[in-house]
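Quick one:
INPUT:
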């Protein structure tokens, strides 16, 4: 039998995880619960995750698929709170406690139906949502100190079962109509909106400038977080359901925005944001200093079977790589470089670990995989020769007073250091491009150059034109884009319904 020590305190709870019945260390019940504790401890100690030394050898998803027993064990831990903080902190307001209960009871089809009632792409959210900041981070069981229910893994498991069992059928609109909707962009916002609108009987045409649908889900997020087959499966499902994808069809280049206004009853702009933020130091003429997205797109394209680029700096192999930034994109870059067999990968971030904007879970994954972190490091100069960087100088910072964001501002300590850099990747976030100039439109924009909308309706200054996702919010999470796609679909439907009523009345 296992003995209960002080170090085991956080592992002591019963199967149903009712915190009023938490097992106390050194109690009689403690050893009687040892089997359950061991099972749950293994789960929380990342036994569902491929070991670092194995996972860095390829780009396969690192989280293993749950089996039925593990899913029941984990979902049974939900305390079925009167106030479900997991649901409250989910941007989609997913009814998490209910579908967890159904998984625990073996009612998987009902669980899936509840899950998908609010979420167009639960298998995507299960893989890429920063659950540690959202549902799992606010789980009552987690807050009580006993480790969160693994909601993301369960969401992934549930949806994969649904695909396997054939529960996910193509959409058959009950009331087809002749109204047409154009969606510009096939990222999560555009695809989510398409799934809801085609269900209402609309003819939905999606215009995508790239050769594949999916936006950053295809080209931005690495395979070890989101296998591309997951996105391609949903794209195929939408196509079978009646959504028409026009690939390599860039609005403003291959077709004008004005043509869309003429031919469609409503337009949704869901282009996302792709313009890279720049460092405050000179990088323009440095050929081995790249924006993060250039690096990630190349890696994903190669993973999809495309021919590698002739640009040798888009591959991290045998290089000393320095990634500048502290968000999830930076973590995608460092972990990709590790898998490309870089000599050394270092992340430079101007604040400390506690103030990083990205997911703590992703930082942990990167640390486990061998990434080095230089905290409180502010790039000051690239040392180069013949347009090629050899090292990066940075100033050592300390944290001063909080800035307008509420986070403590880095201040110069007067100390400067250098780090060897064969490849510098800038992962400082993204900004919107000037869509009005590209489209030849005059949509009202914000001071951040995002499209200005009424957030209740997602309607722009042109009543016929709607916008959703990052082009409205700025660079944000996939789950928020899915949320916006769902909500804007409701607004477009209401707009077109009202239009029909007025037409009939006249």
């Amino acid at each position: 039998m296992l003995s209960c020590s002080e170090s085991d305190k956080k592992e002591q709870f019963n199967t149903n995880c009712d915190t009023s019945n938490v097992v106390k260390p050194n109690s009689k019940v403690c050893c009687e619960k040892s089997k359950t504790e061991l099972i749950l401890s293994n789960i929380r100690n990342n036994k569902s995750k491929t070991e670092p030394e194995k996972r860095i050898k390829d780009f396969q998803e690192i989280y293993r698929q749950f089996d039925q027993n593990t899913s029941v064990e984990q979902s049974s831990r939900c305390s079925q709170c009167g106030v479900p903080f997991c649901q409250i902190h989910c941007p989609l307001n997913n009814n998490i406690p209910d579908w967890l209960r159904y998984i625990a009871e073996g009612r998987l089809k009902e669980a899936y139906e509840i899950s998908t009632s609010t979420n167009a792409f639960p298998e995507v959210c299960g893989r890429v949502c920063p659950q540690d900041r959202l549902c799992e981070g606010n789980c009552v069981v987690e807050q009580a100190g006993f480790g969160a229910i693994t909601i993301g893994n369960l969401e992934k498991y549930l949806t994969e079962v649904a695909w396997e069992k054939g529960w996910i059928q193509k959409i058959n609109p009950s009331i087809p109509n002749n109204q047409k909707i154009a969606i510009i962009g096939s990222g999560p916002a555009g695809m989510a909106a398409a799934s809801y609108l085609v269900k209402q009987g609309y003819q939905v045409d999606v215009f995508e400038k790239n050769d594949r649908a999916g936006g950053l889900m295809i080209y931005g997020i690495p395979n070890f977080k989101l296998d591309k087959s997951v996105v391609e499966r949903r794209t195929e499902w939408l196509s079978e359901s009646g959504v028409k994808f026009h690939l390599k069809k860039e609005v403003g280049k291959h077709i004008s925005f004005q043509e869309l206004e003429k031919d469609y009853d409503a337009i949704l702009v869901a282009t996302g944001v792709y313009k890279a933020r720049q460092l405050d130091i000179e990088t323009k003429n440095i050929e081995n200093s790249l924006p993060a997205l250039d690096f990630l797109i190349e890696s994903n394209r190669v993973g999809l079977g495309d021919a590698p680029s002739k640009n040798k700096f888009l591959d991290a192999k045998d290089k000393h790589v320095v990634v500048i930034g502290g968000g999830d994109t930076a973590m995608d870059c460092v972990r990709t470089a590790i898998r490309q067999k870089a000599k050394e990968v270092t992340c430079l971030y101007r604040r400390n670990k506690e103030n990083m904007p990205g997911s703590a879970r992703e930082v942990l994954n990167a640390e486990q995989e061998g990434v080095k972190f230089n905290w409180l490091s502010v790039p000051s100069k690239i040392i180069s020769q013949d347009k090629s960087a050899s090292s990066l100088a940075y100033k050592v910072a300390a944290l001063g007073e909080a800035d307008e964001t509420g986070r403590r501002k880095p201040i110069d300590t007067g100390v400067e250091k250098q780090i060897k850099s064969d490849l510098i990747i800038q992962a400082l976030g993204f900004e919107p491009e000037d869509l009005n100039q590209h489209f030849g439109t005059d949509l009202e924009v914000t001071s951040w150059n995002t499209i200005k909308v009424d957030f209740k309706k997602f309607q722009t200054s042109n009543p016929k034109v709607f916008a959703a996702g990052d082009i409205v919010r700025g660079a944000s999470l996939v789950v928020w884009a899915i949320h916006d796609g769902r909500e804007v679909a409701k607004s477009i439907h209401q707009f077109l319904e009202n239009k029909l009523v007025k037409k009939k009345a006249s």
